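Late entry, written up from scratch paper. The run itself happened at the end of the previous shift, but nothing got recorded in the book at the time, so transcribing now.
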Amino acid sequence: MPSIFTFGAGQDYKKTDSVIAITGQGGLSLPDRDFYLKDDEKSKSTRDAYVKHVTNMFKLLGDDAAKAAAAAQTVMKIETQLAQVSLDRVSRRDASKQYHKMAPADLKNVMVNFDWSTYFKSIGSPQFTEINVAHPDFFKGVDQMLTSVPIDDWKTYLRWHLVHDGADALSTPFVNENFDFYSRILNGTKEIQPRWRRC
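Output as recorded:
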């Protein structure tokens, strides 16, 4: 389950016959960083609906109303901080801004407070000698968050991403709540497809 950042394999932008490891920004549940940062009325309304949705999902997990609402605010706070250090969509179209190749050992200079070796071992990553850190400023921002955001808040955030990632495969109340926000509110879809079509 990808959260906070992404990791995988991708083409080396400057050596097209090579596939190398790549890691980049992530961790947002809304479609783009601007959803968190814009001050227009539509953006504020979308954020309010998002917080309500996250609250409802925590309630479905068994939290009482007060705990669910507090957890949703925690998620929103962390994701807003991640948005603040993320590249906008225009910058992400510029390949030169997303090419920062280095050796795996140099990752410690980008994110000091994260144990990359343990991470790679835990996810079963194969050995590699080069990695493109697509968004180094994002990782530097996250590195500061790793010491400033309390561990219990990170646990809440990761709990949210677990249920969010699996929402469409959970029981009907989760599926319907997920559809209501992501399909109806964000995309204007009026009606959920029958289950056989979704499967």
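The mean pLDDT is 95.
(Scratch paper discarded after transcription.)
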